[in-house]
Amino acid sequence: MEGLLSSVIDSLGPNAQPTPIQALSLKHLFAPPKDGSKWRQYLLASETGSGKSLAYMLPVLQDLKTSELSGQIPEAASKKGKARVVSPRAIILAPTHELSRQLSKTAKSLLHNVKLRVLCASQANHGLQQSSAAKMAAQLADEPAQGDGAIGSKAKQVDVLVGTPSKVLEMFRGHGWNWDLAKPVDETADFDPEGRKIRSRKFVVGEPEVGLHRVEWVVVDEADVLFDPDFEESTRMLLADIAAARGQPVLAPKPAEGTTTLPSPLVVYNYPFHFLLTSATIPNSLATYLNGHHPELIRLASPNLHKLPAKLKTEHASWTGGNKGADIEARIRQIWYKDSTSGNGRRSKILIFCNKSTRVEEFGQYLAEKSIPNIALTSTAEARGRGSNKHLEAFLRPIGPKAAVDAELADAPVKEDAPHVLITTSLLSRGLDFSHEIKHVLVTDPPRNMIDFLHRAGRTGRAGRWGTVVVFGKTKGRGSNMSKEVISKVRELKHWS
């Protein structure tokens, strides 16, 4: 579609070439199914920083616009009930609010020439009250449609909804739908006539604000996370809700905790919508799930899956003593000294990963005391409740037309007193497209597994650029065996060209 192509050229430049995973998407997802089936099932698997978001967004957006132009859009009101405030035709699921916001912004950047509406379910999570779909839709109605300043009744309807599974579930089922399930019976108990404890709902569930009957596309971004034990239940529950809303219910048994064993009896899911998953890794648990429940799903994988980016250099650093904060400080200052003697002399930005939130806070406080401004971000950090990625803006890649972004970066004033160090957990290791100014990633704790390491390391060296990941550990004496094992496993992940 010409409008989408124009936006891609604006974003990437006229000489950009598709990455391997994007080439696979162009070949398979833009062509009509050869078997004549209506709904498709695909997994796009490729290394970090390879452009997976663009690989799935382009076919989804083109299909939505094509069906709109042909007059094949379902009505906003379902046959079984009233119209909801938001009734999207596509849903993109992500594990974090931060990633949801970035994906929403990326989708909007592709729609300057194509009139489609994108709504982020994590756009306004500030304040004490939950962000309702009504408020979001009201904000959306005040904005001009992408590619067209006129707002008609159909233009106000949302085409793409982006959010976490739990947030979208809340918008569909009503705020507070699961509160009684989260509390023990003793805390919410009444008694039946025979004196037995029963649950007594002490609150009113909010009015559902999202309709799912129009959904034709569901994208599960970071599928290896959304189908792991922490997210699997809410993800599958939402998928089942969408299928039921579209008139084809599926059985969604509760997943067994901590195991990859499939529930019995085995259920093959044929969802009544296009089902698209993306991931930088395919762990055994995800492979087992897909083999059992989606045997006809087509896997499109790049040749470098489960490898580190080609231009990512790995280094291993030894702790020098008990003060790990001092070692981190020394490495940061070493990096910045090299920056001052090469290139444009500007300090690069550094991303530090820890396994625990307490370690994040400890390093953040230590570095601040050593006059190194930083942002320490954990899952409970106050900054996460602001409803935007403003707290991360300086560390994320700008989104927009390439010429405008390049000009903005070139003219940006140098603020050496602004934080150049971001400290976090795996919270920010999935999917986020970080700035090319992040040249170093420091891994301060042994990775829980190599999949976790791939995601952390992959926040630099993206899109063919150079980067360095430094893995800290004890390399001598008692307790050094773990570090040696990590060194060996990291070596196996290297991209040998």
Automatic annotation (TrEMBL):
Keywords from the UniProt entry: ATP-binding, Helicase, Hydrolase, Nucleotide-binding
SMART domains: DEXDc, HELICc
The protein's Enzyme Commission number: 3.6.4.13
PROSITE patterns assigned to the protein according to its UniProt record, in alphabetical order: HELICASE_ATP_BIND_1, HELICASE_CTER
All residue ranges annotated as the Helicase C-terminal domain in the record: 331-497
Keyword Cell inner membrane: no
EC category name: hydrolase
Positions in coiled-coil regions: none
GO molecular function: ATP binding; hydrolase activity; nucleic acid binding; RNA helicase activity
Every Helicase ATP-binding domain range: 33-300
Pfam family, one: DEAD
Catalysis: reaction(s): ATP + H2O = ADP + phosphate + H(+)
PANTHER family cross-referenced by the UniProt entry: DEAD-BOX ATP-DEPENDENT RNA HELICASE 50
Protein name: RNA helicase
UniProt organism field: Phanerochaete carnosa (strain HHB-10118-sp) (White-rot fungus)
